[in-house]
Structures are given as C-alpha cells and as structure tokens.
Amino acid sequence: MTMQSTEANWLDRLEEWTEKCEQLVGSLDSRSDQLPDENIDTNEWKNRFQELRDKVGIYRDQLHEEGIADAAAKLDSLNAEAHQLKSEFTQVMERDRFNGLSDDNAYDASDEDRKSTTEVPIGGHTLPPLPYDYNALEPHINEEIMRLHHDSHHQGYVDGLNKAEKEMQKARKNGDFSLIRHWEDEAAFNGAGHYLHTIFWENMSPDGGGKPHGEIAKEIKQTFGDFNKFKEHFSKAAENVQAVGWAILVWSPRSHRTEILQAKKHQNLTQQDVIPLLVLDVWEHAYYLQYYNKRKDYIDAWWNVVCWNSVNQRFSEVRKVKWKPY
C-alpha cells in the first residue's frame, strides 16, 4: 500500500468523523433540555466542523490529482485542528453531563494512529514486517526463499485483498453486484492468504524448535496423547495436502479443544468457526528453491524453527473463546 493511499484512507476517516459531529450538533437543536449551556451556538459548531470537512476534501482532491509535496505537514495540521476542535467541544458540552462525544463518535487519530490504526479501513491492509532478518531461519529456510515469500507472495495477497474489498465497496455504492461472485472469491483467497501468512511469520523464530512448553504443551498432551503423536499427525497432514495449501493447528471454540486441519489453497476444504494457532505453508513457493520437490524434508526442517512462545501467546487468548458445545 502506498503512502498516498494510506493518507487518503486517513482523510476518509477524518471526513467521516466530522460528518458524525455535524449530525450530533444538529441533533442538539431538538435536545435543548440536555444542553449544559442554553447559550451554546450550535450553528457556530456546525460551521467549524463543516470547515474542517471542506479542508479534508480539498487535500483529498490534491492527493488524487497531483499529490502534495508537503503532505505530512498538512496532514499534521489537520490532525492538530481536529484534536483542538474535539477538545473545545468536549469542554463546552461538559462531557460528564452530556455524553454526545462517546467512543462511537470520538476522534482519536494521533500521528501514530494515522500510520497504524486499530481498525483496518476497507482496502487498507498492509504487509507486516518480518519479526526477524531474512536470513535468520537459515539453514532450515534460506534467505532467498524468505525474501521472495514475504516480499512478493505475501504482498500479492495483501494487494489482492485490498482490491477485492474496494471493488465490493463500489458494488454497494452503485448497486451493481454483477461481479460479486468474482470479488467474493478474491476476498476469500487473498484474505485467507494474508491472514495465514501473518501468523506463519510469527510462528517461526531463529530461537525456535524443540518441544512445546506451557499451556499448549498440556493441551497437546491432553488432546493428542503426547507431542510425538501430535507431531506425526501434523507432519502427515502437511505432507498430504493435495496440490497446495496448509496444515493448521486450531482451537475450536465449539469443541473446547485443539484440532489439526488441512486447508487447500488458503480457504478451501477446512472448517469454519475455528482459530488458527500454528500454521505451516506447504505451497511450493515456501520451499521449492531449497528443497525442490521434497516437501517432507522441508517439513522436517521446519520443526527446528517453530516458535512455541508464539503458539502459547495465541493459545492463551483464543482459549477464552468458547461456545456452547455440540
């Protein structure tokens, strides 16, 4: 995702916030009994939010047409103005007495938030950085594979997901769903690819390998009997994925236990309503440059870089999710 598109997404969020605030101020005219100060000029506040929204529109147009040489400085200025406006309005409304600027309407986009938001905007997915150097997993997975796999293949899934989300957004706006099957397929394939790869990088470490420890070790023993039985099952599942896909250790909120699944491609022939804990990519691009057609050798080597700390961290969170068992 380019910096220009990141800035445009941020401007969209800011514009949406100003619109909500304008609507909020407009609603106060019919809610005068809740105003802490009957002399509040709602028209003045509507005009101030409208002015900020107009500036957002001007900057967005410039970004689309020609770009802005000092975009960062201008966006910083918009960000500061938005925070100042929010602060003043909150003080006037005495937030403890009028909760109009609730979390649903609140604007809280700092500089850092603008770069990395807690909510990914539509078509705003980005490639996560590797948590280690490209050559850190050698000799088990070489640098060339890691560079190609991360920078090219994973980036492709990110780009494909963003494109699909934006096209479906267009379909909702113009009511034309003639290509919805295609874009839903693209969202499933690329979205699953993006999310699984994001877990995959975290599931490996140059300090990995060995047997699991902590709560995931207890869970593996309880469900699979012992680690060796689990490892054999997982390895065979990976080895026997037809064509391309994944082996995945998941937490099942419905069964209240872990399971080993396969996924063909990224999204096919697997279960829904489960949460991945440990994933192994057995697409050929994950190993062919080093192991050629010897998938089993790649799988055996991969166990030397499995990061059980990552698996334990995920397990400690996802095991909280439990549905009524059936």
TrEMBL record:
One of its GO terms (molecular function) is metal ion binding. It holds the Pfam family Sod_Fe_N. Its EC number is 1.15.1.1. Residues 68-95 form a coiled coil. Gene3D superfamilies: Fe,Mn superoxide dismutase (SOD) domain, Iron/manganese superoxide dismutase, C-terminal domain. PROSITE patterns: SOD_MN. SUPFAM superfamilies: Fe,Mn superoxide dismutase (SOD), C-terminal domain, Fe,Mn superoxide dismutase (SOD), N-terminal domain. InterPro entries: Fe/Mn_Superoxide_Dismutase, Mn/Fe_SOD, Mn/Fe_SOD_BS, Mn/Fe_SOD_C, Mn/Fe_SOD_N, Mn/Fe_SOD_N_sf, SOD_C_sf. Residues 212-314 form the Manganese/iron superoxide dismutase C-terminal domain. Residues 100-127 are annotated as: Disordered. Residues 125-205 form the Manganese/iron superoxide dismutase N-terminal domain. The keyword Manganese does not apply. This is superoxide dismutase. It comes from Lentibacillus kapialis. The gene is sodF.
